Input
Amino acid sequence: MDRVIPRRDFLNGAVMTIGAALLPQSVHGHESSADEAQNHSVYNPAVSTGLRGSHPGSFEIAHSLRDGTFWKEAPNPERLAEKYDLIIVGGGISGLAAAHFYRERAGANARILILENHDDFGGHAKRNEFHLGGKLQLLNGGTMLIDSPTPYSAEAAGLLKKLGIDAIALEKKCADHDLYRSLGLGSGVFFDRETFGADRLVPGFTTAEDGESTASSGRLEDFLARTPLNEAVRRDILRIERAKIDYLPGLTSAEKKDRLSRISYKDFLLNIVKVNAGLIAFYQTRTNGEWGVGIDAEPALDCWALGLPGFQGLQLEPGAAPHMSYSAAGYANGGSDRFHFPDGNASIARLLVRSLIPAAIPGGSVEDVVTAPVHYERLDSNSSPVRIRLNSTVVRVRNVGDANTARGVQVTYASGKKVFSVHGGACVLACWNMVIPFLCTELPEKQKEALHYLVKVPLVYTSVGLRNWTSFQKLGVSHVSSPGAYWNSISLNWPVNIGEYRSPRSAEEPILVHMSRTPCKPGLPAREQHEAGRMELLITSFESLERKIRDQLTRTLGPGGFDSARDIEAITVNRWPHGYGYEYNPLFDPEWPDGQQPHVVGRKRFGRITIANSDSGATAYTDVAMDQAFRAVRELFTA
Ligand SMILES: Cc1cc2nc3c(=O)[nH]c(=O)nc-3n(C[C@H](O)[C@H](O)[C@H](O)COP(=O)(O)OP(=O)(O)OC[C@H]3O[C@@H](n4cnc5c(N)ncnc54)[C@H](O)[C@@H]3O)c2cc1C
Output
């Protein structure tokens, strides 16, 4: 369990360096030298292992600003001579899209500076890059795929098109959905001894979210017979998965939907379906991946829209109803096209960067961007009208003069131990809602309060490099859900072949495994659960996470011959204490009149400062991040 992972073995010979001091950039006015430019291989944050996501070094300044200690210790800002038409805070999809939309209106010569506190661009759309056995393997460190509850808007779909992304065509050409099935692998459930009394991996349980439900495939009894669940629980699982019982007789579909929107799925199961209480543990975390909390805090109606069982006899009419969350309402009506790049939506971030700063990412197609190198030293060159400055935390944003008449902004940021201030014609805050009141202290109090309302959802996405996947093959699984365990799921990487990138096809080859956890505290209101989850993440060390990874993989895959000391090659834990943008939860949030929802009040333009980010759309999707960028830029031109 304690074997040291020789992480550097996987960096393909490239020496990895992290930190602002080592970034070969032209930050603060000096151009990078030719030597530095050629030396780009020394800086590639995507290959970093260990604690990633909101990595050490990215959040400390923002936390000291929140705690009121930053300005007590900070040096006086050095005023930079640089001048920009637009300064964007946040280099996620929303910030990059804002730069794109701004250039469309202002022209290609518009000077734009993007400030980002992490050591890489993309925000949540982050890339994990491994070189296992000398071969490139990729996984998303955050944003997983193009997939939204609603079709992409004209603006977001238009942006994808301009970037060359045709999700339907790519899905058809590049996704290899049948690979694991053709090798006899499917989904299974790991029952942990702490929750279910015995450690046992039971293959053969596929949920509707996986595309095909075991309930309809006739193998459910077989599956249940092999589980450590007692007879009463098994009987009730069969009932809710299969039986067509109307548990709300006498009500119309609309009345049923209304009732289901006001109780949790857990309460629906316990009090309306009247299942044995022991069944809850089996379903408890089925909503975690979508909303970051379990079935105790999600409305039954939203769970119906997500495809959870128990509703098949209720004869609910298709389609959304009032009092549903954004995602659930969208799913009830049908969603967007889907496509997963090998590094998730990090490829979208790369395409955006390529279009903004062509010299930084060579190539010219949506397919070659996946394997293209990034010349990080060219992201912040004063020969380019658009510059991306990493490792730079914005600490203050002010209109110059009165907000109503201001013609420019002053943006102050900290990088390492230095503080700089820079002038811009306008600013788009494409960063998280909860940060904004600390940056923009002059905002009206009501707006600050509204910005504080939305609590981001904490998540952890872990990428584990394995020497081979023969244990998965022996056990017949490619995906394991673990309803009671620390990690909610374990999945072999998505098979997708694009450009020169090839996914492993043989179980003898190295592979990446994705594990996810959504820390929360069942029983509390949703926002409090997210806050508790965030606290948990802040105090959990990488060593402790690593031990939990090894432990769970061993207990799950051990019977298939897995040996964590021998088989684990590398681990990257993407910790997102500030993950998904908060989506209103019909069980806990009031129904505000239109226009008075906190995200609408919070995103109001303030002089030459406008607000983007998916938070300002009160949900967590790439299309929303783009839509909000479009709105924030439009507000600058209509002001
Ligand atoms: C684990 C995970 C999985 C997801 N999966 C999907 C998915 O499959 N599909 C999907 O559509 N969406 C998914 N999302 C939602 C995702 O948040 C959005 O799709 C989108 O990437 C959000 O982009 P954004 O630019 O609005 O925010 P972010 O990506 O959060 O970017 C904002 C950036 O601003 C930076 N910032 C904050 N404060 C400052 C400051 N003071 N100074 C400088 N920079 C600052 C932040 O560090 C961050 O990098 C996922 C999110 C997470 C966390």
